[in-house]
């Protein structure tokens, strides 16, 4: 395993992901689905950072919209002014939920959207006269962002532990919906869902139901569990438990939302509507930093009648340039039928990945939905035993992808928490075609086989 040799002078190494074990390629140009390095390599961007650049790089329509916005107004202070750019984006988002979610609070990132959500949920209960509702229930091994509040709801130990105690410490975690590891042999979907619902119910009882403010789940567990879609009926049942106890049902769709799983909002496939929802990555497709908190009627009504404004102003909230870029990205997604393409190409990607690597002795599971897919890699396919963390399997595959096979993959899982297997996550752009999928599958397979050996032989490691 190569040692970490980062020497990128003034860039702090903490900016570079902990799993990166090689000198990071220097990207000097990005075009379509390719990242061009200073040494002349064109890397296929199959993970788009962390599921961000969903329409590819350097899109002329977005550049034009941003340039027009720069000519019109590049910045003004959202708490004091509104802009057509913010209004158009907010209306688009509200309409996209058929009006279930009624107000849109535009932030600068996914973490900030989660922070805003936590504060808004608390304020909702203060205004309702139930100020004792302060707690949140989230899920183990989840990730909701890296600021203190968002980290507090995150259940991903490796990301939390070093910073504990977190400031509020008011979140507890229940099991995620993670059939590959947690569903018992022979257990039906209904029985599995019931078991998880009972666990949530028990957690409410343990905390005292009247102390719980909200339940925060990802609709599809994206990066830290590796593209795990909820089993049918799971989210609806969780919402039922949550509503029975009067807590808010909050969905974090920073990863899963804005088309990635084959519908604009991933909850559309689950038969649930959240009270509060966050989106980010696919919203702005990387052209500007942006996230949003979308607020349901129940919360809007109480806050509108409330005694205090929502005290969450930040200098760059509702940034006009970010709003204009995101609005154009969303128009492109609509005009080019890209959500539908996510669904169709996602099925093809899943088929091709399974055909090429499904029989590999170290591939525990290949799973996904839409254009979010992941490999869970294990030492032993039968027992599902993960590789030891210090073997750094996913980072080594990631490095091989970058250095030898010209593909950018996203490593995760065992590499950071040692609980599940190593993960390789794929999140290609929504406008990928079949030929590009074939290329992604071929390069990904080569990177995996380079490290673990070919599908027909035992693993090298
Ligand atoms: N929630 C989820 C589900 C995420 O995947 C992420 C980012 N990986 C975040 C929140 C935080 O978003 P950001 O990195 O934009 O702050």
TrEMBL record:
GO terms for molecular function: pyridoxal phosphate binding; transaminase activity. Its cofactor is pyridoxal 5'-phosphate. The keyword Aminoacyl-tRNA synthetase does not apply. InterPro entries: Aminotrans_3, PyrdxlP-dep_Trfase, PyrdxlP-dep_Trfase_major, PyrdxlP-dep_Trfase_small. It comes from the Eukaryota. GO terms for cellular component: cytosol. Keywords: Pyridoxal phosphate. Pfam families: Aminotran_3 (PF00202). Belongs to the class-III pyridoxal-phosphate-dependent aminotransferase family. This is Class III aminotransferas-like protein.
């Amino acid at each position: 395993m190569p040692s970490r040799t980062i020497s990128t002078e003034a860039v702090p190494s903490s900016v570079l992901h902990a799993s990166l074990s090689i000198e990071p390629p220097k990207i000097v140009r990005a075009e379509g689905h390719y990242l061009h390095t200073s040494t002349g390599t064109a890397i296929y961007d199959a993970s788009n950072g962390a599921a961000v650049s969903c329409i590819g790089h350097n899109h002329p329509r977005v550049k034009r919209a941003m340039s027009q916005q720069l000519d019109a107004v590049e910045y003004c202070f959202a708490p004091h002014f509104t802009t057509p750019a913010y209004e158009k984006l907010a209306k688009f988002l509200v309409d996209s939920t058929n009006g279930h979610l009624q107000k849109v609070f535009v932030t600068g990132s996914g973490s900030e959207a989660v922070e805003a959500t936590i504060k808004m949920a608390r304020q909702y209960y203060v205004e309702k006269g139930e100020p004792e509702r302060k707690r949140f229930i989230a899920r183990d091994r989840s990730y909701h962002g890296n600021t203190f509040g968002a980290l507090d709801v995150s259940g991903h130990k490796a990301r939390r532990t070093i910073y504990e105690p977190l400031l509020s410490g008011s979140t507890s975690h229940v099991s995620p919906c993670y059939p590959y590891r947690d569903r018992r042999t022979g257990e039906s979907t209904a029985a599995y869902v019931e078991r998880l619902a009972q666990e949530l119910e028990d957690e409410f009882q343990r905390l005292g139901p009247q102390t719980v403010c909200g339940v925060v789940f990802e609709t599809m567990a994206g990066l830290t569990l590796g593209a795990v879609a909820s089993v049918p009926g799971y989210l609806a049942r969780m919402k039922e438990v949550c509503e029975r106890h009067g807590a808010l049902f909050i969905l974090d769709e920073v990863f899963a939302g804005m088309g990635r799983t084959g519908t604009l909002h991933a909850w559309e496939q689950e038969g649930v509507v959240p009270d509060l929802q966050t989106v980010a990555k696919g919203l702005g497709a990387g052209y500007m930093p942006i996230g949003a908190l979308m607020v349901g009627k129940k919360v809007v009504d109480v806050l509108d009648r409330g005694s205090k404004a929502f005290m969450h102003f930040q200098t760059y909230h509702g940034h006009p340039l970010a709003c204009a870029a995101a609005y154009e990205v969303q128009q492109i997604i609509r005009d080019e039928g890209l959500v539908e393409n996510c669904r169709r190409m996602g099925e093809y990607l899943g088929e091709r990945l399974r055909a090429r690597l499904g029989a590999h002795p170290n591939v525990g599971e290949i799973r996904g939905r839409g254009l979010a897919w992941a490999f869970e890699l294990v030492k032993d396919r039968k027992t599902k035993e993960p590789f030891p963390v210090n073997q750094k399997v996913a980072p080594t595959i990631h490095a091989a992808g970058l250095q030898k096979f010209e593909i950018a993959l996203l490593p995760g899982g065992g590499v950071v928490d040692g609980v599940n297997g190593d993960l390789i996550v794929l999140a290609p752009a929504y406008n990928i075609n079949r030929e590009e999928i074939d290329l992604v599958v071929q390069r990904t397979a080569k990177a995996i086989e380079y490290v673990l050996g070919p599908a027909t032989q035992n693993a090298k490691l």
